[in-house]
């Protein structure tokens, strides 16, 4: 009887884990070696950002994050801010993308003095284009960083929801190697 209870528990735990901790998006996204497709979004100033004005001309770090002015996202943005000169010295642009509005991005930029581009993907079109999955339990948009070379090819992808500041460390380590 104890064996049956333990086996049942293991099966139920496995099913629950598959339901709650597996990505809710089954579409295959962009992978290392893929060329970043063209996209357009409004930046924090309300200006139209065209990806081919930057991507394919210099190195780029694009990071997708859940929401402006939340604890993890603020730490991540501020760490990108604090390391911005290092990225610049490597001739790499930093671009943050979330579902927040242009107005929200502008407030976020001003509040934390962010020196890089924030793009408003209010319809999640670019998030879907890249194939950025939702986080565990499918409740939050995922946190994923893409390192793109000057030819517009994805060289590295870092996907980690829980360690927001680690995205910057990983990106710099990769870019310096």
Please name the defining characteristics of this protein:
177 residues, Glutaredoxin, alpha/beta, globular, 7 strands, 6 helices, single chain
Q: How many domains comprise the coordinates? A: 1
What is the helix fraction of residues, given as a range?
A: 25-40%
Tell me what portion of residues adopts beta-strand conformation.
Answer: 15-25%
Q: Count all strands and give the number.
A: 7
What does this structure look like?
By secondary structure, the chain is α/β, with parallel strands linked by helices. It has a single domain (2-176), classed as Glutaredoxin, CATH 3.40.30.10. 37% of the residues lie in helices and 20% in strands. It has helices spanning 2-21, 71-82, 84-89, 102-112, 125-130, 166-176, and strands at residues 40-43, 48-50, 59-64, 92-98, 117-120, 144-148, 154-159. A seven-stranded mixed sheet has the order 2-1-5-4-3-6-7. The termini are far apart. Mean pLDDT is 86; it is low at 6-26.
List the SSEs and their pairings:
Layout: H1 2-21, E1 40-43, E2 48-50, E3 59-64, H2 71-82, H3 84-89, E4 92-98, H4 102-112, E5 117-120, H5 125-130, E6 144-148, E7 154-159, H6 166-176
Parallel strand pairs: 3-4, 4-5
Antiparallel strand pairs: 1-2, 1-5, 3-6, 6-7
What is the structure about, briefly put?
This protein has helices at 2-21, 71-82, 84-89, 102-112, 125-130, 166-176, and strands spanning 40-43, 48-50, 59-64, 92-98, 117-120, 144-148, 154-159. With 177 residues, the protein is an alpha/beta fold. Strands 2-1-5-4-3-6-7 form a seven-stranded mixed sheet.
């Amino acid at each position: 009887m104890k064996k049956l209870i333990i086996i049942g528990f293991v099966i139920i735990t496995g099913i629950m884990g598959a339901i709650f901790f597996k990505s809710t998006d089954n579409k295959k996204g962009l992978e290392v070696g893929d060329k970043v497709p063209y996209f357009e979004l409004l930046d924090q100033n309300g200006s139209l950002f065209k990806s081919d004005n930057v991507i394919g001309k210099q190195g780029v770090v694009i990071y997708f994050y859940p929401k402006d002015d939340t604890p993890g996202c603020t730490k991540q943005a501020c760490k990108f801010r604090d390391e911005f000169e290092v990225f610049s010295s490597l001739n790499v642009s930093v671009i943050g993308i979330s579902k927040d509005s242009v107005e929200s991005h502008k407030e976020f930029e001003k509040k934390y003095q962010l020196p890089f581009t924030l793009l408003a993907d209010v319809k999640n079109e670019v998030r879907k284009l890249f194939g950025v999955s939702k986080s565990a339990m499918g409740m939050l948009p995922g946190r994923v960083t893409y390192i793109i070379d000057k030819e517009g090819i994805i060289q590295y992808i870092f996907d980690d929801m829980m360690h927001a500041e680690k995205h910057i460390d990983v990106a710099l380590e990769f870019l310096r190697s």
